[in-house]
Amino acid sequence: MQQSVESLVQLLESYRGRDKLIRTVCYGSQLVGGVLTRKAVADASSQQLGKRLLLFSAQLSHCRTVLRLFDDLSMLAYSHSYGLGASEEDAAIRWISVLTNVADQLYYPCEHIAWAADAGLIKVKSDKWWLFSTVLWGTSLLLGILRSLRVLLLLRRKLKKHDGGGGGSRRSHLHRQIRGELLSILSSMADLCNAVHWMPPGFLWAERFPSWLVGLLGTTSSLIGLIQMNSSSNELSDSTVSSSQ
Taking 60 as the threshold, does the pLDDT of residue 40 lie above it? Predict the structure, then answer.
């Protein structure tokens, strides 16, 4: 119990960890609230609780939007450090990653302008800027899926080379990487479905998802993000212990 509390506190103390936890609670509230309002025709108390959860979810989403006002510089630093991906061995992964960084970098100012317009800080219509940010988010997700598929292809090729002989630890590491990429694809596909839902009506399934389905897809993606974050922390701890022994 104490270890779980310590892990939660450690997660909340980091910006990325707190954001992932807020995201999970946000979409989880939307999922439960959507289910309650959907089946609450004969139950007024459940309907009221469902509406409150949906309002709570909207406030958490707004909270994340405000916190992202300060993400531009860190994204710029990451894009600068990656550059044109000279360290990448595969050209396809390199250019997909560069395009992803461009989409992510442009996403933030578009969202900031949309937020400022809604807050009445600037006199522009926010609709087109929310659309731009959604398109950039969807583009980034699609590129991320393509990158993961390419990485999977390369990992499977490496795995075949190790199937004939030894290198058990190497094969185990490759299997973990493959599982990680598969989870990334599942997470990005869930988010991409929501991104399409938030596009203007008439585009594929835009605005056709009920609240509970948006919450389900977002919760799935958020939980995968928490799992991957925890796995990365564990791998880092293991490598630190190994290097010190």
Answer: no
- pLDDT per position as a tens digit, 124-148: 999 999 999 999 999 999 999 999 9
List the domain boundaries for the chain. 71-207
Q: Give which of 149, 223, 233, 231 is closest to 185, Cα–Cα.
A: 149
Helices 91-118/127-162 angle, 10° precision: 160
Which pLDDT tens digit goes with each residue over 55-112?
A: 999 999 999 999 999 999 999 999 999 999 888 889 999 999 999 999 999 999 999 9
- Exposure string of 118-154, with b = 16+ CB inside 10 Å and e = fewer, is beeeeeeebeebbebbbbbbbbbbbbbbbbbeebbee
Residue 75: exposure state from Cβ atoms within 10 A (0-12, 13-18, ≥19): middle
- Which tokens hold the place of 37? 């309002």
Task: Give me the helix-helix angle, 168-197 and 127-162, nearest 10°.
Answer: 160
Q: Which two tokens stand for residue 154?
A: 């390369």
Instruction: Output the six-digit token pair for 23.
Output: 């995201």
d(CA 167, CA 163): 9
Residue 171 zone, left/alpha/beta (φ > 0; ψ -120 to 50; rest): alpha
